[in-house]
Amino acid sequence: MTIEVRAATAFDDVKTMLGPKRPDANVCWCLSYRIPSKDNLALRGQERGQLAELLCRQDPPPGVLAYDGDEVVGWAAVHPKADTSFARNRKIPHVDDVDVWSVWCIRARPGHRGKGISHHLLRGAVEFARKHGAPAIEGYPVDNDGKKVDLTMAYVGTRKLFERAGFSKVADTDSVLNGFPRVLMRLDLG
User: Fold this and answer.
1) Alpha-helix runs per DSSP H in 57-178
2) pLDDT in tens, 127-145
3) Alpha helices for the chain (secondary structure H)
4) In degrees rounded to 5, what are phi and psi of residue 172?
5) Per-residue pLDDT tens for 15-49?
């Protein structure tokens, strides 16, 4: 298996990773941290997919996709922190004034989990941010101490995943997910 990570410009592949089974379903589309909460709550049904499609045409696009050959097998959301709700989040601290990027959602497609896709996605998100001039990149994974994380909450990643990608813990947060504290991990890209 050779995994290639590319910018998320192919909306059909983003739709495969994030879209609902029913077109009118009100699923996240990985927008809950990407846009202001008020805007996120106002979107209904197909409006969410339409916004995701628009974001795929912007520079930078909303994240990266992992491919095994021509098949999309993973997604990671990555963007400048200043343009996300993390810029105003009271539970995730700001450690300095660096124009840091954030990676907040890492998903392997069902049937492809347990094959290291998350590691490829995180490395790809780092390279994507670096290519776009980011001086540093942050993530906010759970510090689960090796304990099992519920699959629906595993999208934030684990501290171990981020450490393996070269990130270091910079701060604790006031955020808890699935009973585990989240930590602020950072990797300087300069």
Assistant:
1) 117-131, 159-164
2) 999 999 999 999 999 999 9
3) 11-18, 37-42, 46-56, 117-131, 159-164
4) -80, 160
5) 999 999 887 788 889 999 999 989 999 998 899 99
Alpha helices by DSSP H, listed for 27-182, are: 37-42, 46-56, 117-131, 159-164
User: Which residue, 76, 73, 71, 77, is CA-closest to 111?
Assistant: 73
29: three-class secondary structure by DSSP: coil
Please state the φ and ψ torsions of residue 21, each to the nearest 5 degrees.
-70, -35
Please provide residue 39's backbone torsions phi and psi, each rounded to the nearest 5 degrees.
Answer: -65, -40
Burial of 21 (0-12, 13-18, 19+ CB in 10 A): exposed
Tell how far CA 111 is from the center of its chain: 20
Contact 82, 126 (CB under 8 A): no
Q: What order do you get walking across the sheet with 71-80 strand by strand? A: 3-7, 63-68, 71-80, 101-108, 136-139, 180-188, 168-177
Structure tokens at 2: 């050779």
Query: d(Cα 169, Cα 140) in Å, to the nearest integer?
Result: 10
As a whole number of angstroms, the distance between CA 109 and CA 118 comes to 10
ω into 60 cis (within 30 of 0): yes
Query: pTM, whole model, 2 decimals?
Result: 0.95
C-alpha 19/C-alpha 139 separation (Å) is 23
Residue 66 DSSP SS3 = strand
